[in-house]
Write a structure and sequence with these properties.
Blueprint: H1 7-16, H2 18-31, H3 36-43, H4 48-56, E1 60-63, E2 66-69, H5 71-81, H6 89-107, H7 115-152, H8 159-180, H9 189-203, H10 210-255, H11 259-263, H12 286-295, E3 298-299, H13 322-332, H14 338-349, H15 355-362, H16 364-367, E4 372-385, E5 388-399
Helix pairs in contact: 2-3, 6-7, 6-9, 7-8, 7-10, 8-10, 9-10, 12-15, 14-15
């Protein structure tokens, strides 16, 4: 940003052209730079004054034949749009190095002889802790969004592609982030912050000049908040990220057979294919969980045929009356083949098969799981829903107690 430009004018320029900056940001987020060809397409139809101010204000910087948003603007837009690339553990580890170095300088001998330098180092340590916490929360938010997209299959990936992406998230992002936040690991950043907190808590009671004492008090308050924020992120990883990702990992071991083990035979345990794994299917995301579970049984056609009709009107999705279906389920119990019952209900209500409605019907027994006895049979049933074949296990459903009701 040039010194002659008034801050309010620069901010007004960004506001007036926010849609343009938004497209630049998303292009850079995908490809790390805005290619020259992409830039030409984005600026088409915009006046010369707009282009001139882009570079005069140093909002956009040329890089050979490509362009990049200036780093302060990129971070500002990422904050506004809540869109970031998750940081690799190597990127977060720099905070461990810098905080350890600053701690040694702050607590070393003769530090009080230069109060100006000590105050600057305390300010730098404060900023490093704050940046670390902000980046951890951004990382957790983006990883949570990525796992939700895998569950709901927003990008229409195949099951194997989703498993591969989930494994990538586990090994390179989620597990390293969990270790970074584990205070019991001596080399973790959480452990470093614990040592910083002890040193700061001790130093703030020593006889030092008021301005230095104020800096220690500020840092102490931040570290108290940091502990709570890291606990919240650890809980989010434990409760939200790891259960779904670990389930994907377990299923990938079974579905891909020994390939997963043979990729790194000396680093991974031998798969126990006959071992049962239990996991809870209760919660507000049950529909996407069931849909994700059933997709592994889908037999997809080898070729895709797209049929189109002229002037076809798209109708709105019908309201799913959950309570009504719970009552129907209660009246129908006990059932020897629950998935067949869901199929019959779907067909009886509409001539058009709806895969989404079928999955919602299938999720009912898992939402009422505490009241129902579920029995999976080795026998299979073949159902065709919306042109897709699914070979599902026979599922028996009955009430745990005759005195309890569903719903």
């Amino acid at each position: 940003m040039i010194w002659k430009a008034d801050p309010d004018k620069v901010l007004g320029f960004v506001e007036e052209n926010f849609d343009f900056f938004q497209r630049l940001f998303l292009a850079q987020l995908d490809d790390n730079v805005v290619s020259g060809q992409n830039f030409e397409a984005l600026v088409k139809g915009r006046g010369d004054i707009t282009l001139k101010r882009l570079f005069e204000y140093k909002l956009l910087l040329p890089q050979f034949n490509d362009y990049r948003l200036s780093e302060p603007l990129r971070q500002f837009l990422g904050f506004l749009m809540s869109a970031y690339k998750p940081l690799l553990p190597e990127e977060l580890d720099k905070y461990r190095v810098s905080m350890e170095e600053l701690l040694d300088r702050v607590t070393g001998p003769n530090t009080a002889q230069n109060p100006i330098l000590l105050r600057e180092r305390l300010d730098a340590l404060y900023d490093e802790v704050q940046r670390f916490l902000d980046n951890v929360e951004s990382n957790t938010g983006q990883l949570l969004r990525a796992t939700q997209e895998l569950k709901t299959n927003v990008n229409q990936l195949s099951y194997s592609e989703r498993v591969q992406k989930a494994r990538h998230l586990i090994e390179h992002y989620i597990e390293p982030l969990s270790r970074i936040l584990d205070v019991h690991i001596p080399t973790s950043i959480a452990n470093v912050l614990t040592r910083v907190s002890r040193a700061v808590n001790q130093a703030r009671f020593e006889e030092i000049e008021p301005r230095i004492s104020d800096r220690y008090a500020q840092l102490h308050d931040l570290l108290r908040v940091a502990d709570k924020r890291m606990v919240e992120q650890s809980r989010l990883i434990t409760r939200e990220l790891l259960p779904m990702i670990e389930r994907l990992k377990r299923e990938s071991e079974t579905l891909n057979g020994w390939m997963y083990f043979l990729e790194k035979p000396f680093r991974r345990d031998t798969p126990r294919l006959a071992k049962r794994h239990s996991f809870s299917l209760l919660g507000h995301t049950i529909e996407s969980e069931v849909q994700f579970f059933l997709e592994q049984f889908i037999e997809r056609p080898s070729t895709l045929v797209v049929r189109t009709t002229a002037n076809k009107r798209v109708s709105k999705q019908a309201y799913f009356n959950r309570q009504m279906y719970v009552e129907k389920l209660q009246q129908a119990l006990p059932l020897s083949d629950y998935f067949a019952w869901c199929y019959d209900i779907m067909v009886s209500e509409s001539e058009t098969q709806n895969r989404s409605r079928f999955f919602r019907l299938c999720s009912l027994v898992f939402e009422e799981g505490e009241r129902l006895q579920l029995t999976f049979s080795k026998q299979r049933i073949l159902l065709v829903v919306d042109g897709i074949k699914m070979e599902l296990p026979r599922l028996g459903v009955s009430l745990i107690s005759s005195t309890k009701k569903v719903g």
